[in-house]
Structures
1.
Amino acid sequence: GEAARMMVAKARAAPPRSGKWRRTRSSTPNKWDRGHGAARAGRSARSSSRFAPTKAAGSKGNASTSVEDGGVNVPLAMELWKRANAVCFDVDCTVCKDDSLDALAGFLGKKNEVEAWTTRAMDGSVGLERSLEERMKILSPSFDEVERYLATGGRAEQRLNPGIVDLVGALRDRGVAVYLISGGFREMALPVAKTLGLPPENVYANRMHFSVCDETGLPRNFAGFDRTEPTCRQGGKPEVIRDLRLRHPYETIVMVGDGITDLEAAEVEGGADAFIGYGGTVARPEVMKGADWFVSDFFSLRAELRRYKVAFLGSGAWACAAAKLACENASGDDLFDPEVSMWVHEEVHEGRPLHETINETHENPKYAKGCFMGENLEACSSAEDAVREANLVVFCVPHEFAHGLCVQLQGRVWPDAIAVSLTKGMRIRPEGPQLISEMIRKKLGLADCSVLMGANIAGEIAMGQLSEGTIGYRILENAKVFERLFQTPSFIVTLVQDVEGAEMSGTLKNVVAIAAGLSDGLGYGSNTKAAILRQGLSEMRSFSKKMFPTVRDETFLESCGVADLVASCYGGRNRRVAEAFAREGGQRAMEEVAEDLLGGQKLQGALTAGEVHSVLRQNGWEDEFPLFDTVYRIAVTREIPVDAVTGFMSSRQSGR
């Protein structure tokens, strides 16, 4: 099709081994361009000459070899690999360190004779069917000999190449169907499949026949093999793949193997869409020459599955500090694509678009001056462009803009992307409040959205001062990815399985910080502020548990809880604006004061106080949360004077 031809053209135009490849979208959002047969169509003509195999350096499938990775269509093959619906592995010398018949021959003392025929089959100098026939004539194993071999030297876990168990597990975790297609025998392949967690029906291999003892009824001597199995002859592996396509709606199938018969699987119509040659056991020149992508170990394949392309949505002070951490880690960790994108709300700074300045200096001079984020950061003025290739999205926008941004990006974010919210706040709806992480997950159709909260004063993080953060998660695997993205020697991350508790803590502490700032502006001392912090933490916990009964008490002892509360009440911008508001006696609206002090940054505390109060009023909880109620009435409605900030203590005196 046209999409396949476009992908082939791009692959031909790309550098031979670029290490990076831009995904292309079809006209329908969240759909890949169909690449069926694309690698096969773009594969260069192969020489008809045959070469002797080359043993990979490093013994018995060691991941460290002298064979260099390469291939004729590497960028395209990488993309097909990452979006494959099914992957078919050869068994002998690919999944396993050895050829099963060669190993059986060694067990029976017939190794040299059998290996010679194996080599001739794998380099293509003789047909598979003849090689199989000649080897089995030499071996002629009894049923008991096969059983003894499998129970001793042929145990599957001892034969597997390094990295294959993890690779197959990663594929299955992604929902990719995994098959074993072997020119060897089912008797040898089934234990391998079991070790890899694959069902017997996912194994395609030849079957041995045995004569049956008349007296015992048990299998005895070798009596040939089933010649109706496609894997016993040349062209059998693509035949198996064609059959898989008939029975399953697989759009993209990739074949991985070390031999000519594996290479065949991607050279015929209806076969595999790409062939990945494996040289960890034996590097065969013909396979190296013809493979779309040739690898010397399974770790290369695993790394491509794990790589995350990171996009930041937001470019304020906290977003820039977090992006600095992410850019540092992405540039040195194979788990991530080194390039990090950032959406910058379009505005002009000193006569030029802000995103252009950021791309030139890798700093945000308006909101995070002096915070060098890294040369691997690419800023763009379009949110759609920022997430176009991303499968890890970081939300860090003022919470009042989060809903509109999510609506704008519906159908634009990959459905298998993982997300983390750094936004502190909640959305108030007629049907009840909604956490920002929940809104992101639902609006964008994502399976999961974690949160990163904590004592995160942006300027201090940007300077590399010791700081902490808490990742609230539902899916541990995703949380560990975020931990690797953000943790540095100076930014320590802890994980808690409590998204609601972590997010509510990060949201509510801004209300308490307003109270702390009012106290500072009135000239009150440490005792008063301590009382505000104590009452604030108590109300944060109580309100969170009323909203989400699953919230854990211990979450409030993490960085997202008490530590964030302390940092915000002593050094945050909500405290600073509230202090100035109090010094003026509350004569101007807090939003006006914030405009003077924050240079365009948003004040979250007063907005959150209004949102929290709407929940209190709706449920008749005002008396249960005297500090939250007091902050609302001072900072939002200005119906009571600033010095009433300590009025919450009357509830303790009256026993409420």
Note: The two ends are 73 Å apart (CA to CA).
2.
Amino acid sequence: MDFDKVKEDIRSRLRGECYLDYAGAALYSSFQVEETARLLVKDMCGHPASSGSLSTGSVKLIDQCRDMVLKHFAVSKESHAVVFTSGATAAFNLVGSCLPWTEGCKAIISSDAHQSLMSIKDIANRYGAQSCVLHPWQLQEMLQRSEDSFNPEDSKFALFAFPGESNFSGRRYRLEICSHVKRKGVSGFAGGQVATLVDGAKLASTSQVDLSENPDIDIFVMSFYKLFGYPTGLAAMVVKKRSVGEKFLKRGKSFFGGGTVAAYSSDGFIRPKSIPEDLFEDGSLNMNALVALKSGFHQLERIGGVSKISQVVCELKSEAVSRLEIMAYSNGEKLVTILDDQVGPDNDLVLVQESAGSVIAFVLNDQYGNAIGHKTVERYAALEGIALRTGCMCSPGACHRLLGLSSEDVQAQFESGHVCGDDKDIVRDMRTGAVRVSFGLASTMDDVDKLVDFLGEHFLSDENKATANAGVQVEEICVKRIVVYPVKGLGGMDVEQWKIGPNGLSQDRRFSVIELGVKRAISLKKNPRMAFVEAEIDPAGTSLTLKISDAVAAELGFAAGEESISVPLEENSAQENREIRVCGRMEQVRDVGFPSCWEWLSRVLKADVRIVEGVSQMQNEEALLVVSRATVRSLNDKLIKDGKLPADEDVFRGNVYVETSPNASADFKGRFNVGELAIANVKPCVRCMAVNVDGSKGTSREDSEPLRTLARERYKHDHKVVFGDLFAVSCPEGTTISSGAVLNRMDS
């Protein structure tokens, strides 16, 4: 097995996807998994504290894995200890919790740190210690000012922590700054009182780290799934023995799991073990995962080591950056802005000059210099089979610094409703995150080509495309179909005539479905099985019925007569008031129906759900969603021409389906009325993956249609995919809308 065979194996299982998130997780090979399985079958792992051969085998396995880690980082068991943890985050928590923080101690952390590393400062603050988060140039200023001028009391110490490589931008730090700190001290602390901690999770995945050449790193943290994909949930702290870091970690440990004490009395007598591996590994190790380490290191050795991976990813990154930087609109405006620190005299003591590594962080602008949100890029990329990361990548300091966001800006965005991980990518005219791509073992130049072609197709070509409704003025619209959706995400019911008001169709999206485990409303995009269920309600809103087809009922093993269920809307003792999360905020809702109704729907959706009323943001942004059938036909013509299945108009979940005059393949603007009912076009309806759900199968279409074609064609507004229009409604109370009604354009 060589490098090319492993690469070919991984790519063959990608099913055509362009994977560009190796900074998030490396991909494992089938060789690695098969070898792990073979080892697990060949040798059983018993508890290492037991007697017998199985226990002896486990002890030997653990020792072998520690030796492999030490060898990988070019150090020995005489100088360093390997402490296994459940992840890098757990390692940082262990360090923060074990250090004996008191007043006078200090945590000094780089702003490039991953959120979990940065959180050590919060632990320090809790015990009265000081903390500071410094940008690269501020770190350099501190280092240049530092002198080993005095020796504080032995109980006082400083923690100096930074990432070997930024998880956000990929910019690398100089590991030798640890030696500088040890020689000259930092922030008033003598070098002998400074514990140095390096987050090497990203760095070690694409760079061969030699700790023997960096003897002043007290604690080096790495993560195995970043290195070779499998196993997850296993990381290691490589701790230098007889170092400041080890000394203070031992002194501050206050929680002792199984196997960490030499003597323990329930009356309070405690004598911790002194060997780092024994003291800091609380409870039993994951022996089965350790077996996978043997396979991972064996594969790494056979393909030429991390150095071979580093060579490949550096070449790909250099090519990608060169091509991204020249992408521009016809007016000369740049499409891509790379986010990275420029290394110069103010930070070159801290940062590595060469732009090595595998990560590229960037943002996009339109031809006028306006920001294009990262979520827009993510959605389009998913349609094209490209896996990349967006947001702050759990590195808020680096993200906010490179985006130019102040702490006040971040707070203002939060107060405007933005929370980490949501879809709000532009808030108060400021970005909330960026796009990150990263390369790894199985990456090729084809991935670079696909990324560049994707950006060009979806963004540069937009300036040459007219909007879908350009030059079309619709004079009248004829209502052909009216659909009410009593429950958000479930199927609707066709009506010939229905009451309408300023809030839209009566009873439309009055109820929602929530999943108890996650305490939030679920959507058709998240659970495509919702398309199986049709919801019907009477005009007065007193009786709700849910039903499924005979075929779905048979698939689920429902008895005859169980194809539908009535949901009582009156209050009963089984209902509860609940707090759920909606768009990052908590809201109060109330259960609707009886346990039998919830059990029925849970069985269909294969999730523990409730029907609730009271979610404020479940309705459309405007009163009425109107879809032109001519536009649906035009879209389907394109799909059929490309050899794709046409889209059923139901996937667009319109309230009103219309024919227009002229019979234009377009959305329509303006105000229309019939009698006292007037509707006004407010804006196009932004679309998501929900339109790809095949209602007959309860799954999303594998070809990502029709959203993919919508994104590639002219159905865009502010770089978002749109289809159909949202209308405001004006009418007296008691007004109805009927199928067959003709609404004429009103004079402006």
Note: DSSP finds 22 helices and 40 strands in the chain.
3.
Amino acid sequence: PLLPPLPHPPVMARPSRALLLLLSLTLLALLAPAFYLPGIAPTDYEEGAPVDIFASKLQSTKTHVPFDYYYLPFCKPFELSEKKKIKSAKHLNLGQILSGERYKPTNFSLNMKVDEKLTTACSVVLDAKSASKLTRLIENDYFVHLNMDNMPAVTRNPDGSFTMGYQLGRSSSPASSSAPEGKNKAPVAVNNVLSITVLIHELTPSKAELYQPASEATLHRIVGFEVASRSEGPDGVGGEVLVKEGAKVEWKYEVKFVASPIRWATRWDPLLAASVKSQKIQWFSIVNSLLISVFLTGVIASILLRTVYLDFARYNNMENDEDLEEDFGWKLVHGDVFRVPNNLELFAVLHGTGVQLVLISTFTVAFAFLGFLSPANRGGFLTALLTVWGFSGAVCGFFAASLYAGLEGKNKRLVTLGSALFFPGIAFTVFFVFNVILWYEESTGGVPFTTLLILLGLWFVVAVPLNVIGAYFGYSAKPYEFPVRTNQIPREIPRASETPLLLLMFASSILPFFIVFIELTFIMTSLWNGAVFYMFGFLSLVLVILMVACAEVAIGTTYFSLTRENYRWWWRSYGSTACIGIYIFAYCAIFLLGSHEKGEKMHLLSSVIFLGYSFVMSLAAAFVTGTVGFVSSFYFVRTIYSKIRVD
């Protein structure tokens, strides 16, 4: 069954073990920060060997609507110049496709350790459509993302940090040209010249022999790919290249190879290195979360030690019926405390979904923490997330069915279908609506039809059948044997004990939300700015603290309700922590408003997409925290009622 009978050790053994586990994880985070496994197949280049550059996408931190590299009139490879549509040069994983990445070949011609002076790749005369596209993307601050040997092109900032990709263009300075007649908009200039710097690390003969037989040729590995862009007229004169119909754009590039002491295994470290300020804020977040968790632990310990144990002693030492009649509190509702909750089918579906999401988040964050989902494996995190979801369908079906069978529910078919279709249906509906809009916008964020079929196959061919199989075994569970019997006639709940459910949910979820608030800020900032989030060591510890806090909040809320003779604790224990999803969604909306500068126009499509996916993420967070709260309360209620003597 889902929730087996409790063991006999004292109640207070559990908080102490949880606290020891929390301290152990804290020490682990201190001694072993998150790392990554960069792979076991580096590419070695001899001097003069060709080096390929591939185009990933065009991306903006303002609109967040990606486009294909050849959406704009860039130079196509000579052998593919006649083709209207250029396919990706290699197979992409599911995560890369969903994030809008592609792997298109380009016409950059590079050879290892051979510097190139300024070279013209091709010339393009802009027609009205191309000029309009360029102007729109430059005004929306788009960046061009390239890739070399699985290393992204980055722009080095004055402070030493890096920005992914290079800026497509910028607003032209007033001195370069005046605005076109009849228009108030300032002209834009396209960055048509790239200065490419390739950082290489030379292998010593002993290291080279590990991968291939020794040879006289010196081998090199690429450890960095930096790009600086500028706008330059023909032959280096004439100022900036302004975007307008009929303008001639000469796409140029120059290449320089620079020796670097950085080894191939650590080539991602400069891109992932957090600033000292960020590290301090992260540690402040950890300390803040620990203080809140310690406070909640103290409150729950006070309840268990000073209140529950005193209740045990008082209830179990009653000598006559008069004492029983004079008593009050949580023992008076022993005949109703295990009464089946309202909307049992929905409750079971939410429980099964929550258990599955707990499993998914645990596996993916743990693998990322251990380094198996490194940024070198582009799209790996999202691919792993979807894969674990598909093959954990049996978990959702089993736990939803076992809870429903344990409470002797009758509508098994509805619970089975609900656990298989409820949350995936919401997420897929949001995704499909946005995908159709992105198709219309010609964005690579709209996945191809074949990828859509793969997602549907993962859902209906893998997840749904596994869900049904899990439900089949879950329904074989025996009904729960509770420590007290349930009365046939429900007890009347005193009006004074009827605390409004919404008020209780909002009030009790504040502290768990404060635990993840700072970490959530880092995640949202990374996603919005297109940066790489890789502080999974901090994230893992914060999530553990959050789960402990949710359990403690739910137990406290449940005990508070029972002492006021309100036995409807099932939904209250779930909602007391699930309401954190509302706080997360509200924070996402506030973050969206704050991410735009004063007077800056908000991009409607990107804002709607951001809020839509934030809603799905918040809903998932609500299911996870609600399930943790309910399971903790379930164990707590069974424990305290198994320790008293009921006549």
Note: The longest strand covers residues 219-230.
